[in-house]
Amino acid sequence: MAYAPTLNVSTDAAPCPRVEVLFNTFAAGTTAVDVYRLAGGREYLVRGAVKTAVAGALSRIDFEVPFGVPVQYRAEMFNSSGLSLGFTDTATTTVFVAETWVHNPLDPQGATIVAFRATAAREVKRPHEGDIVWPEGRTVGVVVSGQRRGVQDAVLDVIVDSIVQADKLQAMFGSYGTRTTPVICFRIGANDRVRLPRPFFAGILELSEQDQNYAIGTGEKIAYGMTGSEVSPPTPALVVPLLTRADLNAAFATRAALNSFFLTRLDANRAYQFAGSA
């Protein structure tokens, strides 16, 4: 089946490296789609592309695309009765970004660059559920096991170079007036030799800020001590849109001006240069 997406890679900091997954057409009768990303042997639904209503085309920005590994995208198409019409063809890309980026999956605008410290990820544990028992009359044990877990209690110590980065990292965990889920998406730099999944979603319940040279006035380096276990990301149906209708309304004086600027509704939905205008 055809209809493979076009993948447009951006590696700038506006707000962070990402991939636009653009479907220009779907099979006849398609009214909704699920978009999938496959990387590192794992498949995820793309955030904001779960049973998404479509009218012939779709554009979504993937802020969770990992770095330095082949990434594949495809979509499953559904008709108005919810029946699957099959999958589109697959498109593949690799995003080469040297730095490690972190963000809260529910707020990609707050993403920032960090550097792993020498203490980070030196030990990676993936424990197996179960026990060893010794039944009556047996001289050796018998394993009663469940499934293997994801990464547990990984040391994820990082360092940042500026107060701006430090404030962004703190904000990923909430503030006095803002609550959020303490799940952080680590997109490990393509050149970082760290044996963690890509991407790595870590549940982190404590963040320890450790001054390096800020207090003595010679710089703004701040280190963070944290330990996290691999968790599922927030449901991919939850998303904070990069571009909103309010942004477009703020960027154009009138509705007529907006309509004359774009040839199609898809063009308007992809006008990410106006994100944040509101």
Explain the overall architecture.
By secondary structure, the protein is mainly β. Helices cover 10% and strands 37% of the residues. It is built from 4 helices and 20 strands. A 9-stranded antiparallel beta sheet has the order 14-20-17-16-10-11-15-19-18. Strands 3, 4, 5, 7, 8 and 9 form a 6-stranded antiparallel beta sheet that branches. Strands 1-2-6 form a 3-stranded antiparallel beta sheet, with no helix packed on it. The model has no long low-confidence stretch (mean pLDDT 89).
Question: Largest beta sheet, briefly?
Answer: 9 strands, antiparallel
Report how far the terminal alpha carbons are from each other: 40 Å
How many beta strands in the DSSP annotation?
20
The helix/strand class is mainly beta
In percent, how much strand structure appears in the residues? Answer: 35-45%
**Uncertain segments:** none
Q: How many DSSP H or I helices?
A: 4
From the alpha carbons, calculate the radius of gyration and give it in angstroms.
22 Å
SSE string, helix = H, strand = E? EEEEEEEEEEEEEEEHEEEEEHHH
Strand order of the largest sheet: 14-20-17-16-10-11-15-19-18
Silhouette? globular
